[in-house]
Amino acid sequence: MTVNVGVIGAGMIGADHVRRLSTIVSGAQVTAVTDIDADRAASVAAGVGARSLATGQEVIDAADVDAVLVTSWGPAHAESVLGAIAAGKPVFCEKPLATTAEDCHKIIDAETAHGRRLVQVGFMRRYDAGYRAMKQVIDSGEIGTPLMVHCAHRNPTVPERYHSEMATHDTAVHEIDTVRWLLGDEIVSAQVLTPRRTSHRFEHLQDPQIMLFETAEGARVDVEVFVNCQYGYDIQCEAVGETGTVRLPDPAAPVVRSAGRQSGPVLQDWKDRFAEAYDVEIQEWVDSVAAGAVSGPSSWDGYAAAMICDANVEALHTGEIVSTGLKDRPAFYA
Ligand code: NAD
Ligand code: NAI
Ligand code: ISE
């Protein structure tokens, strides 16, 4: 079966996923594309022989769309996801699932009322080979009970429109999801420390930030977010257990020895760093749609991430340790 995919949002990652669905992933084709910028939708659709439609609702309703991919900007996600659920169509939504916990909850209610899972959220690190290998080590018990996780998320620069809260909502949200998944544990509180600011930033931005999370089982997690580090896109993660540690491998690259120095490249862009993870993620989504059983990061994971992000932003503004207020995972999302 070929899964016909309709795409809502033809920006940077939307266009990249369209390319991926058309040239890398098997068992899928893009049949319809929309964007509030109609020219952009037309150009991306034409590149793969798809139709460009005027609105997200038209994409959702189209007879030649079996499943929907939402890659518009965050505030537009909830409307498209709710529309797809109302139409009974599987929907892959890039992070964030929605920009408020309240909207995430509406999605959970709609999906639960529908009676089976339709939604997958774009937390692609769960599909990265290095993180998957780390999880296998943790789950095997080889390093004992995990006690601490140290993370760093560094981007070379960010544009002026990136503000201090985005360090949580746009950036650390990946670590928030990854750590919950790696440890199989829930984050119960958040605190943010604000070091001296780098001079390589726009005036309004607090950069870097150090985020401290505590899990229900008592593990401690620190996340350094530094989005103007200048030197590259650098993702680090180390879990420390009672009897050992496990560290995320850096992407494989040749080591060069020359002129008395040993060196290697540092990637510059998230698209390159997680390219293979996106490929695996979208292939597994297409396969699950074809099999009629959507899996992967769920609406509950999107909701949990939103609640933890809200607590973290409050912690940034108040300097306090803030409880995330998360209740138990419903049986529907077990
Ligand atoms: P972008 O701004 O390049 O693209 C967004 C596109 O959506 C634009 O073309 C815009 O015109 C369109 N759009 C906005 N609202 C729309 C609507 N209501 N209907 C149709 N189209 C609409 O942004 P981007 O960098 O591609 O990011 C898109 C999403 O992907 C964001 O949610 C972002 O957080 C997420 N993202 C995730 C990762 C990741 O690593 N998983 C990386 C980058 C972006
Ligand atoms: P972008 O700004 O390049 O693209 C967004 C597109 O959505 C734009 O073309 C815009 O015109 C369109 N758009 C906005 N509102 C719309 C609407 N209501 N209907 C239709 N189209 C609409 O943004 P980018 O970087 O592609 O990010 C898109 C989403 O992907 C974001 O949610 C972002 O967080 C997520 N993302 C995820 C990444 C990941 O690693 N998983 C990486 C980059 C982005
Ligand atoms: C972007 O939206 C992403 O999701 C990237 O993965 C992340 O590294 C970057 O900081 C975000 O802006």
UniProtKB/TrEMBL annotation:
Keyword NAD annotated: yes
Domain called Gfo/Idh/MocA-like oxidoreductase N-terminal: residue spans: 3-123
Protein's GO biological process: inositol catabolic process
Gene3D superfamilies: Dihydrodipicolinate Reductase, domain 2 (3.30.360.10), NAD(P)-binding Rossmann-like Domain (3.40.50.720)
GO molecular function terms listed in the Swiss-Prot or TrEMBL record: inositol 2-dehydrogenase (NAD+) activity; nucleotide binding
Catalysed reaction equations from the record: myo-inositol + NAD(+) = scyllo-inosose + NADH + H(+)
InterPro entries attached to this UniProt entry: Gfo-Idh-MocA_inositol_DH, Gfo/Idh/MocA-like_OxRdtase_N, GFO_IDH_MocA-like_dom, MI/DCI_dehydrogenase, NAD(P)-bd_dom_sf
Keywords from the named record: NAD, Oxidoreductase
GFO/IDH/MocA-like oxidoreductase domain mapped to chain residues: 131-247
Domain of life: Bacteria
EC number: 1.1.1.18
Purpose: Involved in the oxidation of myo-inositol (MI) to 2-keto-myo-inositol (2KMI or 2-inosose).
Family: Belongs to the Gfo/Idh/MocA family.
PANTHER family referenced in this protein's UniProt entry, alphabetically: INOSITOL 2-DEHYDROGENASE (PTHR43593:SF1), PTHR43593
Quaternary structure (record): Homotetramer.
HAMAP family: IolG (MF_01671)
Name of the protein: Inositol 2-dehydrogenase
Species assigned in the record: Nocardiopsis gilva YIM 90087
Gene: iolG
